[in-house]
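Could you help me review a protein record that somebody else here produced? This is what I was given.
***
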Amino acid sequence: MLVYPSAINLSTVHLRHLSRVLAARCREIGSRWRRLTPRRQALLALAHLRCGDMYAQLAAGFGIGIATVYRYVREAIDVLAALVPRSTRQW
């Protein structure tokens, strides 16, 4: 498999915000060790959400397993969903 660099058209403000929220989540649940830092986890999740990169591509690019990619993306989506005020949720 070939790995190549990619660019995401996204503000660094979004990356920093999601990184801070994910770091707070790690402290909240008492997670002591992760394969990726909160910043890299945020980048991985935003790459998937913004560009639609497949889990296998992300796993190869970040040097982690596909199951780990799934967990990190799922966690980021859950954290972002928790930020939305309950009165504006449509589901």
Observations:
- The two ends are 39 Å apart (CA to CA).
- Helices lie at 12-29, 38-51, 55-62, 66-83.
